[in-house]
Amino acid sequence: MKKILFCTAILGLVMSSAAAEAKGCIKGAIIGGIAGHYAGHGKVGAVAGCVIGRQQANKADRERGAQQQQRGPQRDENGRI
């Protein structure tokens, strides 16, 4: 049962995006794998850590984008956009 769940989770991660971005995933997978190892579920912890890490990276990107929109366009030293 665990093997089926693990394979399904991995397949879902692989198929979720055409261009895979590792931003947040690697860090989350390492932390989740370590935590999962101590709980007896290292692989599941790594997959969950990757998913959570990626979600947090996307959230941070959205917040940065919103802050840049609020500031308006960036101007150079001559006042040009």
What's the quick description here?
The chain is mainly alpha-helical and 81 residues long. It has 3 helices and no strands.
Distance between the termini: 57 Å
Segments where pLDDT lies below 50 for 5+ residues? none
Number of strands: 0
Helix content: over 70%
- Our Rg estimate from Cα atoms comes to 18 Å
Structural class: mainly alpha
Description:
With 81 residues, the protein is mainly α. It has a domain at 21-70. It is built from three helices and no strands. The chain has helices spanning 2-15, 25-39, 42-71. Helix 1 (2-15) runs parallel beside helix 3 (42-71).
Summary tags:
81 residues, mainly alpha, elongated
Please describe the topology of this protein.
Elements lengths: L1 H14 L9 H15 L2 H30 L10
Helix pairs in contact: 1-3, 2-3
